[in-house]
Amino acid sequence: MNLTSDSTHRQMVKLLTITLIGFMTAAGLLANRYDSRSREKFRFSKLYLAYAMFCTIAFTAVYGNQIVKEYYQGQINLRDAITLYSYMNITVAVINFVTQMMISDHVAKMMSRVPFFPTMRKFRLDSWGIYTSIALAMIKAVGFPLILEVAFIVMQRRQQPELGLIWTLYKLFPQVISNLLNNCYFGAMVVVKEVIKALNCRLEKQLQEVNLMQREDQLELNSKYYRMQRFCSLSDELDMLAECYKLICVHADKYLTPMALAMILSLICHLLGMTVGFYSMYYALADTFIGGKQFDGLGSLINLVFLTISLAEVTMLTHLCNNLLVATRKSAVILQEMNLKHADCRYRQAVHGFTLMVTITKFKIKPLGLYELDMSLIMHMFSAMANFLLILVQADLSQRFRLH
Hints:
404 residues, mainly alpha, 2 strands, 81% helix, 1% strand, elongated
């Protein structure tokens, strides 16, 4: 098997897509069935919807009962980052279950109309880029849950040694469900980014050839008929690239719609989790140096694991979205660098049309129109987190010195 061939790349992406769809269906987040004989490949299914409703009711009953029981027993400690993180993930998971059931028909139509694999066949993807992107997606979807599972096992051995491995899986499951839609979007966008990069490579090859054909020696070397024929071929290719660019931008925006609420809730969850995580670490240090208590090294290490995972989740998502935005804007830069002084009329028209479309499209990743996902989002989140922490630390220090 040739690992660098386009067919191998498509097979790997297809296998991962099938696995993801199967897992989402099994988890009750997808109420659609696949029908290969129909024009609409994905169809809304009442049977799958009933199964999704059963999963939603069962999940809400089991974890809701746990929260109510802990509330009446006075075991809820919102100052504990891990406890707060678990409660927020349970809430986000329930909201994801309900919203995905409500938009099942829309999701089925959207998935049936996305020309994902036909678009991939038109480009030769970079092997290193595609494998790196798939590795990052696997780390986010599989690696992070495994790290959290290890952290839960350490917690279980330390706090409740009488409980078994099932307790750790029980704690991990809401966090997997709450991040599943976010991981679906991440996995799709890593492939979209590679397709855009392949499109830009084709544009750069045209840029080199077109600019070469504008040189004086090339004007004398090539006949008018050859130049006309060559520009005609390049125009056809450029029109195809423009159509692919439009399809990618339009369907990437449509794909964001059913994931938007889940992404926003996940980012809020990570923001609050990081804030409380940093505060918990401060609180442990303050108890040690001000209160004279023994430092809980293992507890702080477990808290640091959850804090690092949240930070990595936000960083990876924003970094990917920023790279995707840069790749889409690079297309316009390449088009503007083309020398059209002696170009054919039809080719000029194709370049101007493509440039106008890129300018008008202004591709952005903005879930629910609230904020744009790029590297500036990390700065905004750190700024908000720093403000929250400053207030919490000032309040705690004032209380500590008042008591002393």
